[in-house]
Amino acid sequence: MKSFISFTVLILLVISCNKSETKTKIKKNNSISKVEIDSHFALKFINDYAELCKSKFSSKDTINITDWIEKNNLVTDNFKVNYKNLIDEAVKEDPEMGLDFDPIFDAQDFPDKGFELSKIDKSGYLIVKGKDWDEFQLPIKVIFKDNKWIVDGAGIVNIPKEKQIKKM
After folding, report:
1. Taking the model in full, what pTM does it have?
2. Which of 6, 25, 47, 48 has the fewest CB atoms within 10 Å, i.e. is most exposed?
3. How far apart are CA 41 and CA 29, in angstroms?
4. What number of other Cβ atoms are within 10 A of residue 165's Cβ?
5. What's the whole-number average pLDDT of the chain?
6. How far apart are CA 8 and CA 14, in angstroms?
7. CATH number at residue 159
8. For 161, which DSSP code?
9. Are both 128 and 101 inside the same structural domain?
10. Rounded distance between C-alpha atoms, residue 141 and residue 78, angstroms
11. 78 plus 12 within the same structural domain
């Protein structure tokens, strides 16, 4: 019986060490494998955002997207600050027009039926595509923070030029 308990404890220790070792590798090493990234939270964020934008255009209620982003727990503080800075800077340059496109979609239009995962690269970027618009692709940057995956960039928000999707 003692050997069974010892064996069980040993197995649990090995499993817990492997899990913490994987998290350490993710934090120290920016190379992330496809199986380690949980894309569900990023898809939830972008699909919730698309629904919010659709309802903004179809509703008489004024929906403040900046407030929604500020309260969103699926994005980093860095994302929130840079999103707000982009919007504020555009309004300062052109108070009437502001940005003439959505910085998260990096476009004026977006897929009506939402997004699905297209691919994941090893540096923490997901590419999503429109469910009803395959050509509409969008980069989403993710990071592992406080033991969970979180969005740190989308469209042009915190996405370097070389990772942004080229428009035709």
Report:
1. 0.74
2. 6
3. 21
4. 17
5. 79
6. 10
7. 3.10.450
8. G
9. yes
10. 12
11. no
Is residue 168 situated within a structural domain?
no
Query: Is residue 32 scored above 50 in pLDDT?
Result: no
Write phi, then psi, for 89 (nearest 5 degrees). -65, -40
> DSSP 3-state assignment of 142?
strand
Residues 59, 11, single domain; the answer is no
What mean pLDDT comes out for the span 119-138?
A: 91
pLDDT at 128: 96
Same domain, 79 and 145: yes
Identity of the residue numbered 43: L
Helices (H), the chain: 2-28, 40-58, 65-71, 77-93
Same domain, 11 and 75: no
**The pair of three-digit structure tokens given for residue 49, joined into one six-digit string:** 């955002």
pLDDT tens digits for 66-120? 899 999 999 999 999 999 999 999 989 988 888 889 999 999 899 989 999 999 9
Range of the domain at 92: 32-163
The arithmetic mean of pLDDT across residues 130-151, rounded, is 93
The structural domain count of the chain equals 2
Contact 115, 131 (CB under 8 A): yes
What length is written for the chain? 168
What backbone phi and psi angles, to 5 degrees, belong to 141? -90, 130
